[in-house]
Design brief:
This protein has 263 residues and is of the alpha/beta class. The protein has eight helices and ten strands.
Length: 263
């Protein structure tokens, strides 16, 4: 398979790897909220009570509604508590420059909306459904839509690609950055020094196993590429290795790009 293709969809080139590594992580940078996204089209994809949830769409030059371009939705990190869609503006700008429609998505978080992780996942599902429904008007090929994200946002994207069965909310590929894919005790994961099931249940609002991507991997999961610092002390690199192994055992392509010494 050609380098830079995931599941037959060309997403990344070697130059993109370098760009992603150089962009500051959520732990090293503060991003404005609401985000300022130059040149993007702002869309409301969902309203919950009085909260309007938006996405910002960056389009390639010479884009038109008659196009059928690949697209990617990015979900920011922040522990399901905070964060901003601004985190993935650089990647989105780059990919739009390479011909994709790139979208940064807002979703509800605990600090702003008193929500739980299950609500974050629900918003992501609705964002993906919105894009699929509007694909023709957005110049997007509905058969080539990826979900991406970092940390908690990587978890959300992984839930769509691994757990979801609805073809309207399931992406065609995943691009994950230090994703939280192990949310409950799992064989081979040694960072659960004590059973944190109740803590995670409180944060998830549901049995954590139900939202733990590694526990839910089957052959129906979509192809994936993971970018992960090997010295990450928040989301251990070993969890990415185990998730990758589980995906491959299920017969699903999963490429893990590890960065030695990076947090």
């Amino acid at each position: 398979m050609e380098r830079g293709r995931v599941g037959g969809m060309r997403l990344f080139t070697p130059g993109v790897f370098a760009l992603f590594l150089l962009v500051p992580s959520q732990s090293k940078a503060q991003f404005t909220y609401p985000p300022q996204v130059p040149g993007a089209e702002e869309k409301i994809y969902k309203t919950v009570d009085d909260v309007e949830l938006k996405m910002w769409v960056l389009k390639p030059d010479n884009w038109s509604t008659s196009d059928a371009r690949p697209a990617i939705l990015f979900f920011f990190g922040g522990g399901w508590k905070g964060g901003s869609p601004a985190q993935f503006i650089p990647q989105s700008q780059y990919l739009a420059g390479r011909g994709m429609v790139a979208i940064v998505v807002d979703y509800r978080v605990a600090s702003r909306h008193k929500t739980l992780a299950k609500d974050c996942v629900a918003d992501a599902r609705d964002a993906m459904r919105f894009v699929r429904k509007e694909a023709k008007n957005m110049g997007i090929d509905p058969a080539r839509i990826a979900a991406g994200g970092g940390s908690a946002g990587g978890h959300i994207a992984a839930c769509l690609g691994v757990i979801d069965k609805d073809p309207e909310s399931k992406p065609n590929a995943m691009a994950l950055f230090n994703p939280a894919c192990v949310l409950a005790p799992f064989e081979g994961v040694n960072y659960w020094e004590k059973d944190r099931s109740e803590e995670m249940r409180a944060r998830m609002g549901i049995d954590p196993v139900a939202l733990s991507p590694v526990h839910q991997v089957t052959k129906t999961a979509v192809p994936c590429i993971i970018f992960h610092g090997e010295a990450d002390s928040t989301v251990p690199f070993s969890t990415a290795e185990i998730f990758t192994t589980k995906m491959k055992e299920a017969g699903v392509r999963c490429d893990l790009m590890g960065y030695p010494g990076e947090g």
